[in-house]
Design brief:
The structure is a single chain. The chain is mostly helical and 246 residues long. The chain has one domain: Four Helix Bundle (Hemerythrin (Met), subunit A). It has 8 helices and no strands. The longest helix has 31 residues. The radius of gyration is 20 Å and the shape is globular.
Length: 246
């Protein structure tokens, strides 16, 4: 595929990135339903450990997204449907890895797949993730190179695309050292509610399919889901009130 075609596909996938996972999610649901939550090859104890590990990995991915979005200034990091960048982010999390938000997404996806612990789910989920971002990232890099030229090329030489470097390539913080946790909550309540609900659904399905979903466990799961929904609604309402005052 020619470079221009790759970029064109990436631009399209960037615009549609909120809906492109839906068919894959539907296919993953079908795969997991067919599996009947069978015990993995290493036994039920390993499956239980993967349930805990998956939640931790997803939470770390969410934490990275929250941290990144609490630092970045408005008009950067392409949160809308069009590629945009008023400035080139090279500090804070961007001094360690070029795509901290996508690395956070990978943590969330991998965490949910660990909870599912199904070989076909791993292949489908990770295959789709890296396939889509292969094109999106190249479209973004072409856009940033057009916007910032040599400055972006110098940044690319210093900072890896996926695997973070241990030491920062440049010192300092984004937003002039202002960590805006309110912005992080306003940006991240939707994805948090989505993946947290998905994790609880995976737990419920596994325990139900294995005949282990007893009443106390079901009560705990429903209480956790209610807490997620209340947090989501609370932040959504606070966000709307904030926008009215702005």
């Amino acid at each position: 595929m020619a470079v221009s075609q790759t970029i064109g596909v990436g631009q399209t996938l960037f615009r549609l990135r909120s809906v492109t996972p839906l068919p894959v999610i539907a296919l993953l649901v079908f795969v997991l339903w067919r599996s009947r939550a069978e015990v993995g090859p290493f036994g039920a104890d390993v499956d239980a450990a993967l349930n805990v590990l998956g939640l931790c990995v997803a939470a770390l991915g969410q934490a990275l997204r929250f941290y990144t979005l609490s630092w970045v200034p408005e008009g950067t990091s392409g949160q809308g449907y069009q590629l945009e960048a008023k400035v080139l982010n090279t500090k804070g999390p961007y001094a360690h890895v070029r795509n901290p938000l996508y690395l956070g997404n990978l943590g969330i996806v991998l965490g949910l797949l660990l909870i599912a612990h199904n070989l076909w789910a791993y292949l489908l989920g990770l295959g789709f993730f890296f396939g889509e971002y292969f094109f999106i990232i190249r479209a973004e890099e072409a856009f940033l190179r057009g916007q910032f030229g040599a400055a972006f090329d110098a940044y690319v030489k210093q900072v890896p695309r996926w695997v973070p470097r241990l030491t920062a390539a440049s010192r300092g913080h984004l937003r002039d050292g202002h960590f805006d946790w309110k912005r992080g909550f306003k940006k991240e309540h939707n994805p948090f509610a989505a993946w947290a609900s998905g994790a609880l659904g995976l737990y419920a399905w596994e325990w139900h399919a294995r005949g282990q979903l007893e009443r106390p466990t079901l009560v705990y799961l429903l209480a956790a889901q209610m807490a997620v929904l209340l947090l989501f609604v609370g932040i959504k309402g606070w966000k709307h009130q904030w926008l009215k005052r702005a």
